[in-house]
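Continuing the series of single-chain predictions for the mutant panel. This is the parent chain; the variants come on the following pages.
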Amino acid sequence: MAEDWHKVARRSELAEGEIASATVGDKQVAIYLIDGEVHATDNICTHAFACLSDGYLENGIIECPLHAGRFEVKTGKALGAPVNVDIAVYAVKLVGDDVLVKLG
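Parent structure:
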């Protein structure tokens, strides 16, 4: 997939501590608003097929709803069993009210 910027959400529709999701081509993206900053990661857990956007977000950590694997949202770092593979983190920029992510 080209390394272009893709609109995935509107900033005004994001709620602090909530998770939104979007699909860009064949890629599922999770969008987070944490302490007023927008972040984006892969939406699929690296341990088993589960949408992180259905998980639990607390203190910048997303917990997978399937087996409770946890990742740091800002870095994508896997935080221990059962996950041992990090999730991809995507660059985010705001253009007006549009949230754009750069995949690649």
